[in-house]
Amino acid sequence: MDLNYSPEEAAFREDVRAWLASNLPGDLKDKVASYAHLSKDDLLRWHGILARQGWVAPAWPKEWGGTGWNVVQRYIFEEELGYAGAPPLIPFGLTMCAAVLLRFGTEAQKRRFLPRIYNGDDFWCQGYSEPGSGSDLASLKTRATRDGGHYVVNGQKIWTTLAHYADWIFCLVRTDPNVERRQEGISFVLIDMKTPGITVRPLMLMDGAHEVNEVFFDDVRVPAENLVHEEGKGWTVAKYLLGYERMNTGRIGESRRQLAALKEYSAHLMGDVRFRDRLSRLEIELMALEITNLRFLDRMRRTGQPPGADVSMLKIKGTEIQQGITELMLQAADPVASDAFTDAVRKKYLSMRKTTIYAGSNEIQRNIIAKMTLGL
Amino acid sequence: MNFDYNEEQQLLADSVRRFLAKDYDFEARRKIAASEAGWSAAAWATFAEMGLTGLVFPAEHGGFGGGAVDAMGIMEAFGEALVVEPYLPTLMGGLALARSPLAGSLLPAVVEGKVKLAFAHAEKGARYDLGFVKTRARKAGDGWTLEGEKAGVVGAPMAERLVVSAAAPDGIALFLAENPTGRPYRTVDEMRASDPVFRGAKAERLEGGVELIEALTDFATALVCAEAVGAMKFACDTTLEYLKTRKQFGVPIGTFQALQHRMVDMFIAQEQARSMACLACSRVDQASDPKERARAVSAAKIKIADSARHISQESVQLHGGMGMSEELKVSHTFRRLTVIAGQFGDADHHLARFAAL
Asked: Which of A280, A315, A371 is the mutation pick for testing B, counting most B CBs within 10 A?
């Protein structure tokens, strides 16, 4: 047992850190640190910088632009991005759609979409949730009917993050309503957001931000070649993606940066034992999460197996910690201050409530562990 | 980075587990805990044969020079089996004298399993303050005499010799003393302790003072964290089994989501505790700076204290009335985990220490 990084891994971290120090634009870093709104241009600018360095999609196979790093190096890279305060890389194209195409896509689909995802030419969003299908995703009703060389899509998606920026949406749609197991009638399709019949309507959240949307489909004609995997096999694709999503929600580097910022911000409260103990407990939760995460990575590296269902605990603990930090930031803020940063601190607290709901609510994550890991 | 035991560590842990499964199952353990002596000479002899009693002592005295990580797998196995033998007190006593000239005359007998030790440090009123020592040491000719009262010294009733802390004119120091026969009593977790009283007892001075006491206590705390992980694993495993087999309303109670989620939270707490036990044991072995060591150990102890309470309480609750019964091992695990939560400092104590570092 050795919890230290190897000299090679430590050197790799230094390289990444040095590169970030000279390549992460100061204005973007400031925006992230001050919880300011990041525009589409901001997100794409950072995406472009990483793409030019060849680092925007480390997990992809080398032939498509991946770096060939192992899981520990990829973790170090992500941790350093978060710790440096880099803007987030929007996962819908880079992580999710790409993972699906690499696993289930045809050669033509890969050649058509992957390079554009890599270079940030296409902005992607995810069409999963519907008004009546949240945690019970398999009950989804958005209908895709075959009509010659096309599918005709009708229905509605909701909570669609950044759909107002998106060029493309990957959707779970129902292609066959007459199946015994409702999971069997679902398909995974890629839809160009410029197709006639698509309407995007903003959903304003309690922090006043426009981040999520409703997306309406009214006789939207989607070429049949945009089906990924087989018709009726969309649920297999969705389940494959779940593991990817959960492994990425720990956000340890980012939480470490925010915890350091919280310590600075709450320095005036360090004499208050009650506050200080809450802060210490949060810090220790993060230490425990970090080591648990490393244990999972060590297991993946040794066995070569994909993450098991128990990685759901990283999502649960990671999001609880992210929320805990914003809660203590809120508490540390001067109750009568009304400056821009204090305002942003309060809004951040409001906004972060989403983390235990999105990407499979933490209750769904517990269901997953109960069923898959504990056999209940 | 690597979270596995090496081959030697794994082999040793496996053989300890096999022995405990065969000769130290719940029934055997119940008999030992209920016996007058409160420990098993046969088990202790086997520990010595397996090399456990010499594991962390220097090779020059017959030991294997191991560290906390080497002892982790053993402590986990002890936690699962609820071993009541005075293993940790003997390790602490032995390590306290390992760097003194006296080690040569005593440690080989400890390694061979012929001598057990206990670490007589705590006193009434000290709570978890390691610097609180009222027992006094006076120079008497070539040697020293001790005057004072120790309290709650686990393993003292069966120890041949005691390592005792006392205030000498030049500061807190450690001494080796004969074991004054104090009244033995049972602790909540079915171990044996006594409150040794020294009235001018002769003692030999050892090397080291408060810093050594702190280092020893951090070492022992890390090992107790590992033991806790084993106890928590048993509590989780047996509760999960119960949820799958116990039927009410015509179905296994594990089909109820309210209970499933509580079981999942126990499982997560156990994994997080395991991570922190790994951290504590590694840092105890590797940290060059006592502050770095103390920070890791306190962080781990906070997490372990919290998870020990959480898991032990939930394991009893989810067993319903059966969880309260003396008949089930889970209630004994509850008792051990309750003591572990406070052993070498409860969460509040370590929160204060963590924040001060």
From this structure: A280
